[in-house]
Amino acid sequence: MKVELMKDVYYIGVIDWNLRNFHGYSTHRGSTYNAYVVIDDKIAVIDNVKAPFTNQFVENIKEVIGDLKKVDYLISNHLEGDHSGSLPTLAKLCPNAQIVTSEKGKAGFLRMYKEDWDIQAVKEGDTISLGNRTLTFVPVPLIHWPDSMMTYMTPDKILFSNDAFGQHYASSKRVDYENNLIEIMEEAAKYYANIVMHVSTLIKKALEKVTQTLKLEIDMICPSHGIMWKENIGDILGAYTKWSNRETKEKILIIYDTMWHSTEKMAYALLEGIQEEGVEVKIYNLTSTDNSDIMTEVLDARGLLIGSPTLNNGMFPTVAGFLTYLKGLKPPAKLARAFGSYGWNSKKTMEQITTNLKEALIPEILEPITYNFIPDPDELEKCKEFGRDFAKKMKS
């Protein structure tokens, strides 16, 4: 599939319509592996695709330029396999092309692919002239690997942003205004929450570098997943600014699992109490909801209530798995509390949840709420009161 984005600039990536899981991240709307070709006095292919799609990718390039020997540059903004898997084949088919990547990318490629490639490593501000167009390289380390960089092209004012501003979103319509903006922004939020939320400080610095230090004028953003941004650039830049500032709203998430519904009864009593305070609240059972979908809601939630029954003197496995995922992504929540039911001893379970919440860097964690076996009506009423108090504390 080829799509002309502007004169002599083409999308040549591939669409992964049936992808439903990406490294444990649920991709309900599929995904894409984006790549681009620029035709000038010299020809540059920017980014690559996942290895299983190599043949389709090669045909896409041929459809635009014909003979692959005409390619002068293979620009790689990121060495992860979904953006470089086709490079070993493409390097052979483009014998006249210079591979260009960041300094850390060069070391990574030689390690990953064990090929005797002549790689040009570029650093901040380095440029390559294609003729009428110039490529300027902007390293953005740890967004989301150490090798990551962006490529900015003038005079077209296109930012090839790699993973930044991406979404796992499969559509034959390749530009923002051709698609449902609500869906795209949902997927952009999910991508941010699950891929780069833990490096929000670095995202903020990268945004400042691109928009303030380098003062790049941007007419189009071409990420490595999802659609291209053209008419709604302000929306995605604004969202990234908000997310990287770790802005939250008055929203509480109740996240739990249950064995014999006792912890679930507590969860719904907490829910009632929070609702009585007029605060936005959402509840998720970890057996029936995917972690990455929950994490999208965590992105702007100010309060977290984590519930678990005691199993084998510890956390329920789904709760333990979720908390491992949560603490790695460093959520912006300000307030949290553990709760749960138990048969003999809940101390270790609550300690484990609280420790994980501390490791997630949540600044204020309240004392756990626990009840033995099945909570009685008075105890459930007490849970409602705890919910009201939690909502009030979050608002204050």
Q: Measured on Cα atoms, how large is the radius of gyration?
A: 24 Å
Oligomerization status of the protein chains: single chain
Which strand order does the major sheet show? 1-2-7-8-9-10-11
The low-confidence parts are none
CATH class of the largest domain: Alpha Beta
Textual characterization of the structure:
With 396 residues, the chain is α/β, with parallel strands linked by helices. It has helices at residues 54-65, 81-84, 87-93, 103-113, 181-196, 200-213, 233-244, 262-276, 291-298, 317-329, 347-359, 377-395; strands at residues 3-6, 9-11, 14-16, 21-22, 25-26, 31-33, 36-39, 43-46, 73-75, 98-102, 119-122, 127-129, 134-139, 149-154, 158-162, 220-223, 249-256, 280-285, 301-307, 310-311, 314-315, 335-342, 364-365, 369-372. The protein has a seven-stranded mixed β-sheet with strand order 1-2-7-8-9-10-11. Helix 5 runs parallel beside helix 7, helix 5 (181-196) packs across helix 9 (291-298) and helix 8 (262-276) crosses helix 12 (377-395). The longest helix has 19 residues, at 377-395. It is elongated and about 80 Å long.
